[in-house]
Design brief:
By secondary structure, the chain is α/β, with parallel strands linked by helices. Helix content is 44%, strand content 24%. A five-stranded mixed sheet has the order 3-2-1-4-5, with helices on both faces. Helix 3 packs across helix 5. InterPro entries: RNaseH-like_sf, YqgF, YqgF/RNaseH-like_dom, YqgF/RNaseH-like_dom_sf.
């Protein structure tokens, strides 16, 4: 069994999270500059067995597409072209940034470190991955 890799796609930087090979535990992986993301994913997927990709989909409060949703869907098409053998799943990512911020606060992370945007992106990717695992009835 391979890992599941989650992506919190952003214009400037992207947070990544993965499961362990048994697909039980979601762990923060890396924050990558978005313009380097495809190269990073190619290297990662060459070195690790990955069973699926999960991409956070930013929807409005009314479950409608936003301008950012269009950008993420376009990136999803790039992923499908680059990695045609990997299933791609979209997961609603509303509120993940707020949940990530709350997680950092409750974990005792100092205010200075919480302002590092990459930290929020990492936690958001983990939340996206946990949501996917829960939707599939897998343990988190």
């Amino acid at each position: 069994m391979g890992r599941i890799l989650a992506i919190d796609y952003g214009k400037v930087r992207t947070g990544l999270a993965v499961t362990d090979p048994l697909q039980i535990i979601a762990t923060a992986l890396e924050t990558v500059k978005t313009d380097q993301l495809i190269n990073y994913l190619e290297r990662y997927i060459q070195n690790e067995e990955v069973d699926a990709l999960v991409l956070g989909l930013p929807l409005s409060l009314r479950s409608e597409d936003t301008p950012t949703t269009t950008m993420v869907r376009s990136f999803g098409e790039v992923l499908k072209d680059k990695f045609p053998d990997l299933p791609l799943h979209f997961i609603d990512e509303r509120f993940t940034s707020k949940m990530a911020s709350d997680t950092l606060i409750s974990s005792g992370v100092k205010k200075k470190d919480r302002k590092v945007k990459g930290n929020t992106d990492l936690i958001s990717a983990v939340i996206i991955l946990q949501s996917y695992l829960q939707s599939k009835g897998l343990p988190r």
